[in-house]
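Methods — Computational structure assignment.
A single polypeptide chain was analysed. Its primary sequence is given first, followed by the predicted tertiary structure written as structure tokens.
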Amino acid sequence: MKLFLIKTIIGLFCLVLLFSCSDSSTDPADNNQENTITDYDCNVYKTVTIGTQVWMAENLRATHYRDGSRIPNVTDNVAWTNLQTGGRCYYDNDSSGYADLYGALYNGYAITDTNLTPKGWHMPTEEDWQILIDYLGGITIAGGKMKEADTVHWKSPNTNADNSSGFLALAAGYRSGNSPCPSVFIREKAYFWTSSLFSSDRAYTICLNHNSAGITKASDQFKWGFSVRCVKD
């Protein structure tokens, strides 16, 4: 009876903690106290104001959508390739070693779900990214102002990286649709999804490189896994 009572108390405490965190993510005013935002999982992210926009200054690492449903962590390559619903993964399938710093890599099905972002925030459109790029001087130099200025999380030479914008982009790499490895190019490339669709199974993407101060735009299939940054509504 004593053991049952203890387990019940612990369970109730966990539920209170969970709802406390999820409630905090539903009020944009609360989320932006002291320049932070909190997601459903109680992850706290730093934010930064760049021009007229407010961005997360860290990659999203949510394991649940805003409605409480779980985003599956898919480690098997075949399962990842065949997935047609939202999923997440991590470099070397090691969430404990990489999630806190680099965040998760999400497939395109996850980023089309409006519940992926905390309330009061949204997946940036291609236009949102272009506003940021233009404010930072254009596509040929904006990447340098967004990248963390070191060669710890970026491979040398990390061209013209000074993080003068405060965006603090890290090279989390990506997961390709049919990669033999869980993910590749960590410390070399930072890929970010936009919410702007190129087709029914492709979205526009933004890429920063270790050997360039510029930014590359492309469109990629939903079965790829990229980082996510959110922007305030």
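Note: The two ends are 50 Å apart (CA to CA).
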